[in-house]
Amino acid sequence: MKPMAVGLMLGVGDDPRESLRKATEVGVDNVQLGCPPDQYLSGSGSETLKRAIQESGLTVTTVFVGFPEESYADIPTVRRTVGYVPRETRAARVAKTRQIADFARALGVDRVASHIGFVPEDPSDPLYGEIVETVRQIADYCKGNGQLFCLETGQETAPTLLRFIADVGRENVKVNFDPANMIMYGAGEPIEALQLLKDHVASVHVKDGKWPTGQDQLGREYPLGQGDVGMERFVQTLKAIGYTGPLTIEREVSGEQQKRDIIAGKRLIERLVQQ
């Protein structure tokens, strides 16, 4: 895979070959996998998906963790449902994360990523220490698999995430940097955040979006080049910090519109990489 190769964030539905075909149709050679349905996480289902990936010729760079109870409807709902913050689901979600890490290891993938939820800004908040310890446990498990555990940006400001990573204190805890999420959650300017987090960035989502327009609302995602990220400056900054990994397009619509937007976005990003 060449440096800064354009890839795709790919959901895996009930028919993995059909899902993988979406990536090959838009001309990418690498993908991050969204959390697969449970039937593909172990046993014969895992082998079926593994064969489908091998036949597709695609390289899987990261497997994402996700949970069915999560909702991204608005910021209060995210706080209540996403990641490892909700106490009532935390133990089960940690167990599920270990299962997904083992699934990724079986595929030969050395990166697992997740939204961990809203980490409190105040480190004296008891919940802050709980999430630190939870991520330590996950990171230690991933280390045993020879894997990185990547925290996706967006729900925390960059200074909070930087402090959190330092407090977790595990070398295999890294960042999956999503510039649009910084904007859509109102968490800060993405270029400044990227520069602050640069030493921890292991993977990147190429996504665009606009700022929230109301209290407790999320901003909207847009096709690449039509939001507030500033894709030219974003790619220039990635080059400046020495990032050479995949540039994974994430477009959160479906159908033919998604395909058209991904193809157009791929052309844009490849042009910016060559500048």
Short description:
The protein contains 10 helices and 10 strands. It is an alpha/beta fold.
| Biggest sheet record | 8 strands, parallel, barrel
Rounded to an integer, what's the Rg over CA atoms? Answer: 18 Å
String of helices and strands: EHEHEHHEHEHEHHEEEHEH
Please write the CATH class name.
Alpha Beta
Description:
- The protein is an alpha/beta fold and 275 residues long.
- It has one domain: Divalent-metal-dependent TIM barrel enzymes (TIM Barrel, Alpha-Beta Barrel), CATH 3.20.20.150.
- It is built from ten helices and ten strands.
- The strands form two sheets. An eight-stranded parallel barrel has the order 1-2-3-4-5-6-7-10, surrounded by four helices.
- Strand 5, helix 6 and strand 6 form a beta-alpha-beta unit.
- Helix 5 crosses helix 6, helix 6 runs parallel beside helix 8 and helix 8 runs parallel beside helix 9.
